[in-house]
Amino acid sequence: xxxxxxxxxxxxxxxxxxxxxxxxxxxxxxxxxxxxxxxxxxxxxxxxxxxxxxxxxxxxxxxxxxxxxxxxxxxxxxxxxxxxxx
Length: 86
Fold this sequence. Notes:
Layout: E1 2-4, H1 13-21, E2 27-29, H2 39-52, H3 60-72, H4 76-82
Helix pairs in contact: 2-3
């Protein structure tokens, strides 16, 4: 079982074809407008806060470098906590 949000790229013809070819995989769609259930949203919110709050980043490369530096500094324990994994 794979939990995904309701984004359109999780529902299109390529996804249906992939699922047809791989019948053991099933998608479970998260309820609409529930970012708290979507772990990537929790991680992204934390990255934005730690890496980009009150910070001027002139280029996309600067943003990317800052985000990578921030997330690489995180401990496994912090990631488990963000993802609500005990």
